[in-house]
Design goal:
Elements lengths: L6 H12 L4 H8 L3 H11 L9 H19 L1
């Protein structure tokens, strides 16, 4: 069964990690797998080159799809 974590939980865990809490500690403390936390870090950490996170890019792609559909019709 897949667990879903709300945005608030994700942000809290990532903030605690930025403040120095280790991923293994946070995983034990919150009952979240280490892989999940690392995926969140990858998703929400801005790229050094573009300054955009994977989440930012995903949102922009969704907007482009909506705009392209509006232009077709």
């Amino acid at each position: 069964m897949t667990k879903r974590y709300n945005q608030e939980t994700r942000e809290l865990v990532l903030q605690l990690n930025e403040q120095g809490q280790s991923v293994p500690f946070l995983a034990r403390e919150y009952g979240i797998s280490e892989a999940t936390i690392f995926n969140w870090k990858k998703e929400y950490t801005p790229d050094e080159e573009t300054g955009k996170s994977q989440e930012d890019i995903h949102q922009m792609e969704k907007k482009c799809i909506v705009w392209s559909k509006k232009m077709i019709f």
